[in-house]
Amino acid sequence: MKRVSLKDIAKMVGASPSTVSFILNGKASQMRISDELKNKVLATAKKMGYQPNQVAVSLRTGQTKILGLLVEDISNNFFASLAKTIEEEAEEFGYKVVYSSTENNSKKGVELLRMLTQRQVDGYLVTPTLGMEEDIEMLVKHKKPLVLMDRYFPGIEAAYVQVDNTGAVLKGMEHLVEKGYKKIAYITIESGLIQMRQREEAYAEAISKSPEQKKKYALKVAYNGSREVIIDQITEFLKKNKPDAVFFATNYLGILGLESIRSIGLSIPKDLAVICFDDNDIFRLHLPGISVLQQPVEAIARTAIHILMQQLGNNKVAIKKNQVQLAANFIVREST
Amino acid sequence: MKRVSLKDIAKMVGASPSTVSFILNGKASQMRISDELKNKVLATAKKMGYQPNQVAVSLRTGQTKILGLLVEDISNNFFASLAKTIEEEAEEFGYKVVYSSTENNSKKGVELLRMLTQRQVDGYLVTPTLGMEEDIEMLVKHKKPLVLMDRYFPGIEAAYVQVDNTGAVLKGMEHLVEKGYKKIAYITIESGLIQMRQREEAYAEAISKSPEQKKKYALKVAYNGSREVIIDQITEFLKKNKPDAVFFATNYLGILGLESIRSIGLSIPKDLAVICFDDNDIFRLHLPGISVLQQPVEAIARTAIHILMQQLGNNKVAIKKNQVQLAANFIVREST
DNA sequence: CTGAAAGCGCTTACAG
DNA sequence: CTGAAAGCGCTTACAG
């Protein structure tokens, strides 16, 4: 059962492939093709179940109508939501999305980027890892449509969209200070990525301005640590430093942190207040509910797509800047 | 900055495109091409940053090395994990995966399936929705490589991989009965999909065999209901029927159910035992931990890919059956 | 050992 | 109003 091609249809109706192509692409009237022929072609195409070969179209037109999306980890809630909204938005513009996870592994990231190039994607949406600088810079130099998300490289003039990390952490810290906490700890992962640095620096800034707390209590866990190792590290840190509040820098850390807090038997917020970057079903459902700085995921995705579409010459949307920071939503629950 | 093509390289080294193609595809020795020429071509290709145009390769070879994956909802934990493992496994065999969410909308599902066909994917991995029967059957008839996951259509001879729903629910029910619960309710979504029917029938079977409980207490919520509506429905159901245990048929329902139980102020498991199909971080972290029937997600993904690879003529793996059911893992926590 | 040629399935200037 | 022809960037029988 061979697939029918445009040529097959042309042969069946006794017209040339070019004429059939025009009709199938809705250019019949523009090319002043008779209604009779047009209807005949349309009917035959339908009857034969004709489906254009997109690969051939892409090769000919130079457009694949595919966007490449590289996230850190698709099984992580934040990135999954991001991917979903991006897919929906892209569809509005007639683009499909192929996605892959870098696992924050620069080698894998670079390979995926090359793969996307070989696949001739029309545009790139990337949450880059450290080590991808060169390849990203190359894309920028070649004027490829590209938008970074969640993080970016300070030296590289690429478009990006991220949450306002600094503002978010400052807001959370302010809240804790107002509530009277005097020994606020900060738990993050070891990472040179800009968004983690921004958050950490905001914590440091907040502490330096605090009237009551002079000293930072920070823990950095290894990125590649197993669940168990990280939980142990957090447990030990909390036992040793006995903070009265703790700020988790990510979703993932927050979840592990809760396990750790539970294992010590601390009561939230009486013994220890908890606040976390990124929301999660777990934090909403937890008893007590965990206060969070929620990233505006949909807005990040939408803005990224709009900037990318602008680069692709799709002017349905007008955007001014191509480097955007969006405010986080502060959701106060019972943990602070 | 135009991309360099194979022809460009041929021109630069003064050889024919065919020779360059052979060299670049590692067939130099097979074609008895001189080492000198070979090295020259390789060096030039590298220097010029040559990247083969996969679109052209696909058109010519008829293989895209792309697999199409259709899941119900990529932002749902179960499907995200499934997608991730599939992607990893596919990579082992040199395939990329493009995925999309059907949202259990048959119109969208059918459109996506056609899109995948137009994009010339080499194989299909699908969690089908009701209403996709015809299109799926067409793929089977055309002998397209295809594996269904999570659910299937009884009348259609397609390969599939799913968890043993019947066995899983029976095991859970048995546990509840043994623990002495006598009024076990079952909460599911309205759906004609096979996996939901299998679970429901297993519940009915368990009740019919139970020495103590003669009557079923089942609630079916609408698939499209909003969070709030579903929570209200569950709340009302629990208040009215006062079961001593409740079995949630999915992940998503379980989470909403916990919110509902909390709003009523019932204590788990004293007032109400809880068990759920599908695991989730939330259930592990919840106080008390929720007992679950965990799907073997990785195994499902791996099996599906292996069957698909077999269909694609990739004989690295030997599999006997092409319709597979895998046992669930029963994880007992404190909620039962 | 290497090159010229055909062809994958389309689209689109160019002719008539 | 419609057709013949070129070409997108590759691969692969076919010649020599």
From TrEMBL, chains A, B:
InterPro entries: HTH_LacI, LacI/GalR-like_sensor, Lambda_DNA-bd_dom_sf, Peripla_BP_I. The keyword Nucleotide-binding does not apply. Residues 4-61 form the HTH lacI-type domain. The keyword DNA damage does not apply. Keywords: DNA-binding, Transcription, Transcription regulation. CDD domains: HTH_LacI. Pfam families: LacI (PF00356), Peripla_BP_3 (PF13377). GO terms for molecular function: DNA-binding transcription factor activity; transcription cis-regulatory region binding. Gene3D superfamilies: 3.40.50.2300, lambda repressor-like DNA-binding domains. This is LacI family transcriptional regulator. It comes from Paraflavitalea soli.
